[in-house]
Design a protein that fits this description.
The structure is a homodimer of 332-residue chains. Chain A is α/β, with parallel strands linked by helices and 332 residues long. Chain A is 43% helix and 16% strand.
Chain lengths: 332, 332
DNA sequence: CTGAAAGCGCTAACAC
DNA sequence: GTGTTAGCGCTTTCAG
């Protein structure tokens, strides 16, 4: 690996000049060429490690997500990536596996590696951003709001979405509508379940409603378990609102396997069914703008990186629901 | 941000001693405690950026994959991550979007950031690893073999899998079996198609076979387009072998939509259908050990990082096919 | 067991 | 327009 000094010597200039050539300082046409040639010959690549130490920052942004196997987050990641790339930044993805310890480890890294900023879909409600904030590294929260830190955030309307999904089932004639939501300590899980509850209350269907609420892990297996559990009740639900895409897949697998596929039992999913091949009869879907979430978050972050100092903003993106009249009709 | 000098001063020792405490050098019990306390009080986090520059290496491994939205790769990523974490390494994911330029950019970064090593699922057949190799950074190829570089690799049996999938369709009575494979310049795409071709030839079904071959992009849309294209032929195929998971989803979507779902038209997929909710009637699946691919690659890489110098190895993992007798039977 | 000093490769003042 | 110099924060001989 050749250094900036090797290039300088070969080109007969100082290291500073080489640095200027590489970073667009003012250098005469002729020396520029000499330096370029020398660099070429030595196949010189500047050490980012050194640059980073010197300038105390790098063109890398960390995207910290709870589940890399969830298409919702990968789609979001693509959004982030596309705008970051366009602005000359690289994105590194960190998977926390919904584990606050892993998350905190990755946040430490982002900090001590002098990354330009971080986009965070928090694993819990106790993320410690104090280090990053103290060093004035911008952080923007995505999907899940920040807790106790005054930072930019971009989310969807979780409560509203939970409500619309549930209402679609109610409108289709279902009455015993269960809810399968995520972990207790995850904000989005709580809000979506609240949306469900409010809709049920508003429709006067809230008798013994708590028996129909399940907390699972936002993963396929969790959805399966919860669905099986619900179906084994003495009075099983006739429809279910599932609070994320993966658990909906799990629930559907169980229903299909038992010959209870929608519309035999109604299903409303918060989040698109990934890679679905079935015609969505009897299924209502709250579509989430996953990619846009990423795009928006990345834009906010870039603004902050570029010195924007305005008060922190929260952007709520619209989610639209698909409820074809024929598709969620209750079968009699 | 406090530095090692701040801690040193507060503890009344030299920076060297602090460094020793942080990295396990031999320091007296008592000074160790003083240093620890001081570090605690100052909430000191060592700068990885500086450490990295000094030791010319870091505990980070880069995982470079072509499509972060493909569950096959994310599953592989989980495998890599799990073993890396256990060994004290962090993984950063780089998405190349099947674009050799992006790939080369990320490889440059891995190099100039002094990462410990890289696991690469190449975007094409011209990846330039010379920089990394010159600096003795270990690279292991995964899923797709290396081209022109003598490095460790872990793959599956692509040709064999293509063959078994096709044979399953033949055995089920299909005769005009099309093949939808990936981009021309991607090795796995070629090999899987070859497996198909050989099986067809062996069965004497190779008349005009080339008309039934399609190259697409390994993505859902590509699978849809190819399937539509095939169905619009004057003599459409009665079955199709699709060379990856995502394109199979696309093909299935088209078939379901047209009322031609398997077993009306036979389908064999190289790679599991992600998040599938349908009972796989009439579908043969070559199961790929995605996670194991990642685990194996990570283990290989860690060995190299730890100084293993043995000649390079290629490991081929088994893929097993699911072909329930009833499930791929041709309907008459 | 501990400290002094050099240096990883680069950039940013400051001179000329 | 170009060179000199002084670090960024850490680790690592080499002395003591």
């Amino acid at each position: 690996m050749s250094t900036i000094y090797d290039v300088a010597k070969k080109a007969g200039v100082s290291a500073a000049t080489v640095s200027r050539v590489m970073n667009g300082g003012s250098v005469s046409r002729e020396t520029t060429k000499r330096v370029r040639d020398a660099a070429e010959k030595l196949s010189f690549t500047p050490s980012r490690a050194a640059r980073r130490l010197r300038v105390q920052s790098s063109e890398i942004i960390a995207l910290v997500i709870p589940d890399i196997e969830n298409p919702f987050f990968t789609s979001m990641a693509r959004g982030v990536e596309d705008v970051a790339q366009a602005a000359g930044y690289s994105v590194v993805l960190c998977n926390t596996d919904e584990d606050p310890d892993k998350e905190s480890h990755y946040l430490d890294i982002a900090l001590s590696e002098n990354m330009a900023g971080v986009i965070l879909a928090a694993a819990g409600d106790h993320s410690d951003l104090s280090g990053l904030i103290a060093k004035r590294r911008p952080v923007v929260a995505v999907d899940r709001g920040p807790h106790g830190f005054d930072i930019d955030a971009v989310t969807v309307d979780n409560r509203g979405g939970g409500g619309s999904a549930t209402k679609a089932l109610i409108k289709a004639g279902f009455t015993r509508i269960a809810c399968v939501t995520g972990p207790q300590n995850v904000e989005t899980a709580q809000l979506r379940a609240e949306g469900w509850r409010q809709a049920m209350v508003a429709a006067g269907l809230h008798d013994g409603i708590d028996a129909y609420l399940r907390h699972a892990d936002f993963r396929v297996g969790g959805g399966r378990d919860a669905m099986n559990d619900l179906l084994s009740m003495s009075e099983p639900p006739d429809a279910v609102f599932v609070a994320n895409n993966l658990m909906s897949v799990g629930a559907l697998q169980v229903l299909v396997q038992r010959g209870l596929a929608p519309p035999a039992i109604g299903l409303a999913s918060f989040g698109d069914l990934p890679f679905s091949t079935l015609s969505p009869v009897g299924i209502a879907v709250v579509h989430l703008p996953a990619r846009e979430l990423g795009v928006t978050a990345a834009n906010l972050l870039l603004e902050r990186i570029n010195g924007d100092e305005q008060p922190s903003r929260t952007i709520v993106l619209r989610n639209k629901i698909t409820e074809r009249a024929t598709s969620v009709e209750k079968k009699h």
